[in-house]
Amino acid sequence: MTTTLEACFKTAESTAEKDLEEREKELSEEESGISEQRVRLEAERSIEFYEELASDKFATAAPSIMQGFLAHGDACTQLEAEALQLAMTQPTLAEDEYSPMRPYNAMLDRLDNLQREQRELHASIVSLTQRDDSIEAEEDVDQPSARSQLIHVFSACLPVLQARAANLHMAYELLEGAKENLAMSLHLESLEFEDD
């Protein structure tokens, strides 16, 4: 009886080992298939991302808008510093005898141009980031499209543009005040000359 039990045990054990080996082979084949599918899926997603970038207006408009945004930021920083410097130092008559207001007027014109560029950039970004209902319906919630990923980047630029607009407006008002102060100073100087 012990030998029969041992024989049954060995038979069951060998059968179980064979079943485990077969199952192990099946699982390794399935895992290799799954890993191949995962690699293929990631490659397909990358291809879709790049094809989508190249297929719509983002391919042409987005780079130029972003370059314009960055250049505008540099120009604003430089011009705001120049405006502050000009407002803090009043030009003397020796610098521009015929028109001491010329530096102020030139700086105000440059500020006007930057404010106009800011409005144009804002409008460009808004039009670029407006959602199309047909695109929105096709989007996969788990894997956002290239367009939706870029929309977030460009949408983050809008508050920065609004802050720049406020800074440019403040610089404009500062220069207007400095210009008025210079005009009053010149008027007082002219009154002093008349009294003499």
How would you describe what is shown here?
With 196 residues, the chain is mostly helical. It has two domains: 1-55; 57-195, Methane Monooxygenase Hydroxylase, Chain G, domain 1 (Up-down Bundle), CATH 1.20.58. It has six helices and no strands. The protein has helices at residues 2-55, 58-88, 102-129, 133-138, 146-155, 157-195. Helix 3 runs antiparallel to helix 6. The chain starts with a helix and ends with a helix. The relative contact order is 0.10. The mean pLDDT is 80. Keywords: Coiled coil.
Q: What keyword list fits this structure?
A:
mainly alpha; Methane Monooxygenase Hydroxylase, Chain G, domain 1; 6 helices; rod-shaped; 0% strand; 196 residues
Q: Could you tell me the strand content as a percent range?
A: under 5%
Please state the average pLDDT score: 80
* Low-pLDDT segments, ≥5 res: none
* Largest sheet geometry: none
Q: What's the CATH architecture name of the largest domain?
A: Up-down Bundle
The CATH topology of the largest domain is given as: Methane Monooxygenase Hydroxylase, Chain G, domain 1
Helical residues, percent: over 70%
Fold topology:
Blueprint (H helix, E strand, L loop, with lengths): L1 H54 L2 H31 L13 H28 L3 H6 L7 H10 L1 H39 L1
What's this, in brief?
The chain has 196 residues and is mainly α. It has helices at residues 2-55, 58-88, 102-129, 133-138, 146-155, 157-195.
